[in-house]
Amino acid sequence: MNEHPPPRVGVAVPAAGLGRRMGGLRKPFLELAGEPVLLHALRPFLAEPRVVAVVVALAPDDAGQPPAWIADLDDRVSVVAGGETRTDSVRNAVAALPNDLDIIAVHDAARPLVTRDMISRCIDVAAEGRGAVAGCPAIDTMKRVDPHGRVLDTPSRAELWHAHTPQVFPAELVRRAYEGASSGTDDAALVESVGGDIQMVDAGSTNIKVTRPEDIPIAESILAARSDHG
Asked: Are the C-beta atoms of 222 and 126 separated by less than 8 Å?
């Protein structure tokens, strides 16, 4: 019986944000447990053998002269200039990926606690023809509010999840979704708009996004706990 070859996976990593909530510091290059946040985010993807290419979209100034450690990290990693919005950065990174991919994953550089297991489970779902979004079920009561903070209603949390990254899809769907996309913060929403079928993948609650200074010690605590447990 002939076995299908493993899917070829490419990864688009938007990392061009200005870090306004970090006081203007470049989040990808902030140190987390002695290493750049971006390095923590990339390493688990490079440990997944189905990943054949990773394109990081950096701020234009950084892309013109990226840190040496990125060039030395792995032959599969390359850099492009990001755009004014996250959508622009993802589009630029996707365009720079090889054309013969089966699957494309999008992962925010500001999520440095992603694990190889999480990535692999999302790839497995995408290999079946569906999109996969890492996330976790909502555990707090959720409120829908108007622009002034006035509560409009209280949706059932049983139907609500927090959407993280990685978000992993059949490559053709990603490319089609980003052809006419103008803006957005969620790749799955764009893929949904072109008819994609999306499944949530429970990644637990530790896949946090580093967006504020107070997130750094929290992320370092999670890394330390993982190290203590092997």
From this structure: no
- Across 192-221, b (16+ Cβ under 10 Å) vs e yields eebebebebbebeebbebbbeeebbeebee
Q: How far is 67 from 70, CA to CA, in rounded Å?
A: 6
Of 165, 206, 216, residue with least CA distance to 33: 216
Instruction: Write the single-letter amino acid at 4.
Output: H
Q: By C-alpha distance, which of 30, 188, 170 is closest to 107?
A: 188
Q: What are the structural domains of the chain?
A: 9-228 (3.90.550.10)
In a 3-state reduction of DSSP, which class is residue 155?
coil
Query: Which residues have C-beta within 8 Å of that of residue 210, sequence separation ≥ 6?
Result: 27, 30, 32, 37, 110, 111, 112, 216, 219
Whole-angstrom distance, CA of residue 48 vs CA of residue 55: 15
Which structure tokens are listed for 142? 């959720």
Whole-number pLDDT of residue 2: 56
52 within 8 A of 46, measured Cβ to Cβ:
no
175: left (phi over 0), alpha (psi -120 to 50) or beta: alpha
What are the percentages of helix, strand and coil residues in the chain, rounded to 5? 35, 25, 40
Residue ranges of alpha helices (H) inside 108-229 are 116-126, 171-179, 187-193, 215-228
Query: Quick one: angle between helices 86-96 and 171-179, nearest 10?
Result: 130
Low pLDDT (below 50) residues in the chain? 1, 23
